[in-house]
Amino acid sequence: MANIRSRKFVLPVAALSVSLLALAGCGSEGSDSAGGSGDADCAAYESYGTFDNAEVSVYATIVDIEAERLENSWADFAECTGIEVAYEGSKEFETQVGVRAQGGTAPDLAIFPQPGLLAAQAQGGFLKPAPQEVSDLVDEGWSEDWKNYGTVDGTFYAAPMLANVKGYVWYVPATFEEKGWEVPTTWDEMTELSEKIAGEGDMKPWCAGFESGEATGWPGTDWVEDAVLREHGPEVYDQWVAHEIPFNDPRIVDSFDRVGDILKNDKYVNGGFGDVRSILSTPFAEAGQPVLDGTCAMHHQASFQAVNWPEGTNVAEDGDVWAFMTPPIDASQGTAITGGGELIGAYADRPEVQALQTYLASAEFANARVSQGGAISANKGLDPEVAQSDLDRQSIELLQDPETVFRFDASDLMPGAVGANSFWSGIVNWINGSSTEEVTQTVEDSWPSS
């Protein structure tokens, strides 16, 4: 997610704060560290050392109640170590963090929602390599893929922190039971179910919304990324992200068309809103609502969709709404999922900065944050049982399963000129009627030459 892309995680529904992945979006005024409990077991923090009159500044996109929960997660650490943590969130993080670095006013730590932005800061010479303690923690608690997202040109800079799982398909269990519909286990079954629902005529199979201000189009990139990973596997996905194959490679074109069979089909969309083109005028945070009122059957959106449902909605397997993972194209290939998260990079290497950076990479931090709700992590030391919802527990188990193939959101890994620009606008043109070949060629032509 470069710049505006992060705002895809802002979920302003029913006065609810953003979810975990809203971690990537809004901003807030600065604040001092949340106060400790006063009765913390400081033995748990002895390894980090103790400090007098030490302050560490942290800059991120996390705001509102999510910021409060983040500060609560390090409150006892701060109390026991003597480190005052000065936290600031900002709507302009993606642009301002670079401005601050160039101007000599960088924060001590920054929580990056995009590996691409992290890489740019590291390649600019602004970030400090992570200390060995952080590297060791990540080796112990995270998969190699996650460590690679914080590694730039062979140097490890940033530990992963929290995460999200994309590719969920939301539905109403009672409706499926009443209609006798089975949750699909392959993409072909999902397509067959879509055809069946369309033929019955009671509702549209799908509802979708890609409107997100200047970031309009990003939910469509998630659809395409899911299809590429499931159809062609992680090797091709990685080659696509790294531009080792062109954006308009025939395999990518195939995946676009596979998604287009659903999204560009007036028989299948856009339940509750209109025709195919209404997808572009439907705000993404509102796009799933017709699932609840029975005007559409399914909605594709990440785990953070859970906070978009009206207050009081029971999100559970036997509740008002639930979700299944977008199924594989070839079931023999196992479970493959896309997702996102944050990485903690340091602009300073003072001992107190490294102490906080180490804590934020730990299982203790992950459990402290996830236990408050609205967040998940891929840290292997996280106990899924501390999660506050069934969906969060399911997502954590997927992330921790060694058999799961996980890949970071492709557009967040691509250069900003593509991932947060031409890919988004290409989706808009595609929904508006441009051919897959035209769109993928335009995106390919936009790829930076160096």
Give an overview in words:
- This protein is of the alpha/beta class.
- Strands 1, 2, 3, 6, 11 and 12 form a six-stranded mixed β-sheet that branches. A four-stranded mixed β-sheet has the order 8-9-7-10. It has a two-stranded antiparallel ribbon with strand order 4-5.
- Strand 4 and strand 5 form a beta hairpin.
- The two termini are 19 Å apart.
- The N terminus is likely disordered.
Topology (SSEs and partners):
Layout: E1 54-60, H1 64-81, E2 83-89, H2 93-103, E3 109-112, H3 115-123, H4 132-141, H5 144-149, E4 151-152, E5 155-156, E6 159-165, E7 168-171, H6 173-179, H7 187-200, E8 204-206, H8 218-241, H9 250-263, H10 289-293, E9 296-300, E10 322-325, E11 336-346, H11 351-360, H12 363-370, H13 390-400, E12 405-408, H14 410-413, H15 416-431, H16 436-446
Parallel strand pairs: 1-2, 1-3, 8-9, 11-12
Antiparallel strand pairs: 3-11, 4-5, 6-11, 7-9, 7-10
Helix pairs in contact: 1-12, 8-9, 15-16
